[in-house]
Every structure is written in structure tokens, then in C-alpha cells.
Amino acid sequence: MTDRLTRHEPAGDWLYGLDMSIHPAWRGRGGARLAGLRANPTLTPQQKIGFRPLALIPDYLDDPVCGNFGVLLRLDAGQEV
Question: What are 27-37's pLDDT values in tens digits?
Fold first, then answer.
């Protein structure tokens, strides 16, 4: 996706909608229903102290359970943990 939803004008004249879809191979697995409710023993505690996931990193490690993906995390320098 080349366009990103990075601009917001509270006093603007338009209300935009967003249509999301899921890859056919992943449909029916509850991703849309449960996306914010899933927990991960490593990532969830990091998010609770302020780390924010920014991107997936393909082929980061050799672990078929996670599809060999890693997660790029960000913690702002002024963030208290």
C-alpha cells in the first residue's frame, strides 16, 4: 500500500473511510475478531511498558512457529519504564 493514513484535519470537510481485507489463506482464522486480544509471552510485556511494534522483519530468525519473522520495536528516549 503506497498511501498511508498519516494526515488528519479535525476541522476538515471530509470524512474518510478505510476498507481492510485479509489474505485469502488467512481468512476464517479470527484475525479481525481477535487482533487486539491476542497475547504473546515476549511482545505483550514489552508493549505494556511502552514499546510499540513498528514492522515485521522477515527472515529474522530460524523459527517456523513464527514464520521466521521478528518484530521491530520502538521505545521513545523519554519513555519511563
Answer: 777 666 657 66
